[in-house]
Fold this sequence. Notes:
By secondary structure, the protein is mainly α.
Amino acid sequence: MTIKKINNIHMNKIIFFGACFSVLIACSPKTTQTGAVVEPVTKTLSASALQGQTIYTEKCGACHKLFKPEKFSEAKWRHEVPEMAKLAKISAEDENLVLTYVLESIK
């Protein structure tokens, strides 16, 4: 074999493996539309908190990045959830479920 053929074989391998890597990355699991991922809470949550988690993920995550509940204090959540509930136009019941979720998650 000539050096030119050997170089072509190596270049073809590099291109092949590069293409495989690109496909692997493209096919990897995606995050939500906003780029946020809410990791499951390892604590045991009440049924109400689990409902709140679903609302938090679906409703809050539709507009902005989701924060892990432990990122903020209870006081901060008690301030933010009602404010955000107004903007999101969610019911008072759903607001309470979201608040239950974040508060149970930080305890």
